[in-house]
Design brief:
single chain; 5-stranded antiparallel sheet; alpha+beta; globular; OB fold (Dihydrolipoamide Acetyltransferase, E2P); Arc Repressor Mutant, subunit A; 6 domains; 17 helices; 745 residues
Length: 745
Amino acid sequence: MISRSVSKNTSSVSFPEPQDIITFLRKANSSVGKRDIARAFGIVGTNRSTLKTLLSEMEGEGLIIRAQNRRYSIATGVPPVGIVEAHSIDENGELVGKAIGWKANSGNSRIIILSSQKNSKHQTLAVGDRALVRLKATSNMEIEARIMKRLQERSGTIIGVVKKTEHNAEIRSVDRRGPQDIYTEDISEHNIEDGDIVLTRLEGKKVYGRPQATIEKVLGKIGKPGAIEIIVCASHDIPEEFSKESKAEALVAGPPNPKGREDLTTIPLVTIDDEDARDFDDAVWAEPDKSQENSGGWNLITAIADVSSYVKAGQALDKEAQKRGNSVYLPSKVIPMLPESLSNEWCSLKPNETRACIAVRVCVSKTGEIKHYRFIRGIMRSVARLTYREVDAYKRGGSPPPTKTIGDQIKNLYGAYEALRHARINRNTLDFDLPEKRIVFGRSGEVTSIETRPHYDSHRLIEEFMITANVAAAEVLNKANAPCMYRIHDQPPLDKSETLRAYLKGLGYKLSRSRQLRPQHFQQILEKSKGTKHEEAISLMILRSQSQAEYNPKNTGHFGLNIDRYSHFTSPIRRYSDLLVHRSLIAQLNLGNDGLPEAVAQQFPELGAHLSQTERRAVNAERNAVDRYKTLFMANKIGAKFVGKVSSVTRFGLFILLDDSGADGLIPIRHIGQQLGERIQYDSSRQALIAQQADKNYGLGDAISVRLETADCVTGGLIFSLSDFDSPDISRQRRKPFRRRRLRR
């Protein structure tokens, strides 16, 4: 029960009730300090100590939260104890859980699972495990779940790799947090061999203290070409095979019927893609606007493959595409959303072939502002399939364009791009320039090198054309109050902003304390850090502080692009969200009788959540595959020394990103402790590990020399140590070989 004593000297001011403070915090929309609360309620003098007591009592009863910066916010309604299931591992290596049988008030809260402070060694969880946890809301967007008791093993499926023994087999999970010593005697029926990748089912019981499983299916062989794709697709539940019905529907597709379509075949549209692209779903064109009222302005056309004319709502192809949500792009394989007979043929805007399209003609001013636009359902014929590298070379004069028409068009495209770029600068968008690595394969499928992917102005040109088309689609549907699957991106969560602010302060940078953070607040820091040793680390921290973009029929704007209304319209071959937007445009603009059905429009909230989930699944799978290929590339380099940077700092160690290959791995905190001979401290505010006796700090962005200790091709993990010191003794951390116990008879 909350009680307080108010000084009579200030009786003219009514002291707030707990509900008054909760209402004030809710209206604030961000955390506030005690001084702000006192000022809001006119609390002065000795009653400030009474307010402090009241706030402490409210915090103790779980009504409000006090963050590390001593600022208060509304509690998320988290019970003190609950059950969580380990769900995934995020980009920082933290184990993320989902609530079982309870729910926080904020549906967006992330649950971070931590081991018990008293018994951390024996209370780690693998993905899929459940535990009884002590819950604490550390902010409105994050809940700390500290393990009290690991719950009984549950049955389920595990993807693993076989290691045969004399009479049975051991199976190692491909998930680094999964069980690494699964026992099975089920080896004869499937003719199991060493290195087989298998789908197993845990039986919910243990043999000799180890989980037991039966083998359901042999999926492939570790080390063989395609093994990584097999592991990734199976681990992330990514469907590879299309249903017979959907393939049959795709096979009957044919040339578009020009009836009722606007003829764009005389317009010299071009596609611009990567060298290895196989599907071309967008084409662009531009010319100067001849209108005197728009001097210096431009007319643009962005034409998109008309997937909706081949994929009909409710049919087998549509159901398959909806289930997949999006295509998945792995380093050596694409798992398409649509069968290749569509995605690489009739829905691909190949040069000199007639294709169905939905296009938008946009008129922009010389400063890139949209003057007006018109959507078209038409037929087109691309005049050239160009690559980013080629277009950049033509622009710089490195090589001549193949024809004058293409040369003139490239000149116009860059002219329009300059106008759109001007608008982007004026919008104060958030722009990251982080290097991206590309896996290079040999003829036999082996990894020959890892290269930095070049980024040209031609990439930015296409990006701006696509953004402009996406904005036009969202605007026309919004004005008509028609269903739209918006692409929304909220401003950064409060807790992440506070963590970022503390980190930047330690480096001498100041992030605005404005209640309404804007993209320019972050962009200013990115600009100031350019050319400094902390440039990449600051970019990473700012990127990690941002919210995840998602799909939602309820529009809240796009924070990163600083756009009020935004959708995805330009890639219906590979994103189902875009197909929904196409159908809504068709229905609203009377472009055909195959528009969005009303029943589907009613399902937009559920579809938005589903598509956001499949997108995250694809991103995680793509990252997992790249990491595994990097590990494969590093596997023959054990003991070698490398130079890299600290890319992330966690409670359990340093993540290191190597300069040359872009491979990343972990230096466990226990390794650092062994090498330096002392207990290492984790400082979350400084994003650093501290060795006080050795007077060494390892912080985000620091250059570091490391030695590769292990490269695990089963789990895809790399383990490093500090190269300036002797290697740690890692033998005691490895599981002892299993020996069959003699049974007493």
